[in-house]
Write a structure and sequence with these properties.
This protein is α/β, with parallel strands linked by helices. Helix content is about 20%, strand content about 30%. β10 and β11 form a beta hairpin. The longest helix has 21 residues. It binds 2-acetamido-2-deoxy-beta-D-glucopyranose (2 copies). One 2-acetamido-2-deoxy-beta-D-glucopyranose binds next to α4. Pfam families: Pectate_lyase_4.
């Protein structure tokens, strides 16, 4: 797991700055909170926050149901357009239809930034910057990256839309630590990040990762790694996640193929929010997606994540995702393989499962889609976990709990839920497209 607070002193300073910036709207207690942040395991600190519903993050929304409802509308709009046959290109997948219907998308690459839906819909990545063409797949120097390498591109301070000159296989010696306002856009080429360190998104905003094959990520660390032109620092061991999101927001991870890493395929922790994970193809992995690292870290109540149009495929075991504290909209995904369970959680997360296709495995003891990591039913009965319009196959069952959907939302989603019959079509191109 990706925590173990691997922060150098310099990172800690950065962290203080970030926190002070984040909570400057409530300036009266900002200094006090910033000072307390490092004592995460201090129960006084945790208790003080846990009774506190005032937790805010400037990039989290007050009404997550409204964003879920907006996702439903965009899906319905796309599936309607498809039925009406307006354009022969439409698939019913609103993200893909947004850019793939443009035959000249290669000339308009940055338009992709306007195609996201859900909580990560405002992630603009490097939309407002220039292009950076990665030409060099080798020569990874974690401290002094060479121009032309992916590492040199992602650490820059300015917004960049990063593309690749040709097909590439990149093996990183240390984590690829991204700076804010970057898009990695591998459309049209075949780019693998594999057999070494993988991607770290830490204390930044506005990242789009599209079209990569990320696999066989290994633990690395105990080394210096550069995170910006002006800063490098000591990294302790990294667990070997494909994509690790730490204290970051406005993140969109779309159309990647992810498999077989030492730790998670995607981990989002430590107050990360405004995230969309869409159109990815996950295979051959045990603990697939972790959203929220610990039950006691109540700041993850601000976590809001949309998980849409992904294919959870062969060789997966559990955590698709495993959630804590926040609000998770899981919509129109295709679950074709799990060995233990699909969706799990603890610490009272809200799970809004809608229009997914859940195909249970043969094992009669693994038919339940859901898993609560909380033995006391009296406690989890209050958690809001709902299933609307999911297609449950081969004996799959979803154990719901808590409140039903609010009225206005239920009306909208009952219409959109029909699209579970289209999940096969909507996810048929999941993963990297080349
Ligand atoms: C925990 O935090 C409280 C309040 O800030 C402080 O007084 C106390 O010494 C801390 N305890 C530990 C073990 O860090
Ligand atoms: C859905 O379509 C309607 C009518 O064309 C449009 O007004 C609305 O903005 C669309 N909503 C979304 C979320 O795409």
């Amino acid at each position: 797991m990706a925590v173990a607070l691997r922060l150098s002193c310099l990172c800690f300073l950065q962290l203080l700055i970030v926190i002070v910036l984040f909570i400057n709207s409530s300036a009266d207690n900002s200094i006090e909170e910033a000072e307390q942040f490092p004592s995460l395991s201090n129960s006084t600190f945790v208790n003080r926050l846990s009774g506190n519903d005032e937790l805010r993050h400037e990039h989290a929304v007050d009404d997550p149901e409204a964003i879920a409802s907006m996702v439903d509308t965009s899906i319905r709009n796309s599936t309607e357009r498809r039925k009406l046959g307006y354009f022969s290109c439409t698939t019913g997948n609103p993200i893909d239809d947004c850019w793939r219907c443009d035959r000249h998308w290669q000339r308009n690459r940055r338009r992709l930034a306007d195609c996201s839906i859900g909580f990560g819909r405002n992630a603009i990545g490097g939309r407002d910057g220039r292009f950076y063409v990665v030409t060099d797949s080798g020569n990874d120097d974690p401290v002094n990256p060479r121009p032309g390498t992916l590492r040199h591109a992602v650490i820059q301070d300015e917004p960049l839309w990063i593309v690749f000159k040709r097909d590439m296989h990149i093996t990183l010696k240390q984590e690829l630590i991204m700076n804010s306002f970057k898009t990695i856009d591998a459309r049209g080429v075949n780019v693998h990040i594999a057999n070494g360190a993988c991607i770290t998104i830490q204390f930044v905003t506005n990242i789009i990762i599209h079209g990569l094959h990320i696999h066989d990520c290994k633990p690395t660390g105990n080394a210096m790694v550069r995170s910006s032109p002006s800063h490098y620092g000591w990294r302790t061991m990294a667990d070997g996640d494909a994509i690790s999101i730490f204290g970051s927001s406005h993140i969109w991870v779309d159309h990647n193929s992810l498999s077989n890493c030492a730790d998670g395929l995607i981990d989002a922790i430590m107050g990360s929010t405004a995230i969309t994970i869409s159109n990815n193809y996950f295979t051959h992995h045990n603990e697939v997606i972790l959203l929220g690292h610990s039950d006691s870290y109540v700041r993850d109540k601000v976590m809001q994540v949309t998980i849409a149009f992904n294919h959870f495929g062969e060789g997966l075991i559990q955590r698709m995702p495993r959630c804590r504290h926040g609000y998770f909209h899981v919509v129109n995904n295709d679950y074709t393989h799990w060995e233990m369970y699909a969706i799990g959680g603890s610490a009272a997360p809200t799970i809004n499962s809608q229009g997914n296709r859940y195909l249970a495995p043969v094992n009669p003891f693994a038919k339940e889609v859901t898993k609560r990591v909380e033995p006391w039913e009296g406690s989890w009965k209050q958690w809001n976990w709902r299933s609307v319009g999911d297609l449950l196959l081969n004996g799959a069952y979803f154990t719901a709990s808590g409140r039903a959907a609010p009225g206005s939302y239920a009306r909208a989603s009952s219409l959109a839920a029909k699209s579970s019959s289209m999940v096969g079509m909507i996810t048929s191109n999941a993963g990297a497209l080349s």
